[in-house]
Design goal:
single chain; 3 helices; 8-stranded antiparallel sheet; globular; mainly beta; 7% helix
Amino acid sequence: MNPEPTTVLRCGDRAVAHYTTRPAPAPDHSPRPYLHPVTTLAGRPVTETVPADHPHHLGVGVAVPDVAGHNFWGGRTFVRDRGPVALDNHGVQRHDGFELCDPDGFVAELTWTAGGERLLREHRTVAATALTGTAWALDLTFSLTNVSGRDLSIGSPATNGRPGAAYGGFFWRAPKEATAPVVFGAGAAGEGAGADGSRPDGSGADGEEAVHGARADWVALAGEGWTLVFAGATARTREDPWFVRAAEYPGVGSSLAHDERLPVAAGETFVRRVVTVVADGRLDRDEAAALVRKAVTS
């Protein structure tokens, strides 16, 4: 079997991520390009792929469980009044090629297909930026255009009847360790938060329950010798609540369809941008906020 083609992403002289362009997982994993392994500057892995608990989790990428009824997330589909059901409805994200591919970033074109139909065209930009001697930032922007010729909508298990499960969009699967990572956030946007998400008194939200489903400028996972800080880098991105898991498995994503389905008219394009600080060591809230400011404005 030929190895899966990958592109190496570098921050300065260090390889910090590998991007698999044409993966070959099982069809029910919703094959899609992804970043893995992603590492800190010291070389510590901060992603996981095909884990035993959720074998359809593939490092860092864009995954959506319901695009007009097609599953681009992988695994079972949550069906209202039935629960999770194994359906033959999985889509594929095809890597069509690079518009630009430099050592520190790339611009890629993708097509989302399901059932023999082209549904979405994606323009994806990924870049690595040095922040300090122990931290760098992964900047990922995805632009999705409805090319189906008809109106579509994007949903999630939450919009299909499963409370608290509004996953779908940008998603980062972190490595599972002996203990669950610490979770903290900047505090909810619009509730006294500053431009960097901090509040005037320096306080924020702590714990999975407090951060999950919150609209905050940034949220953080801190594991064994690493910290990831996820920041919405545009006003529209910051409107999407965060999907956060720590106790069951470590993962963070944004919710395109949290309270209701996201309509995407024929020919319409929508854009989201998430910048993730990847740091060695355990950051506190002030350190996380300072690195977010530097990452988003750099």
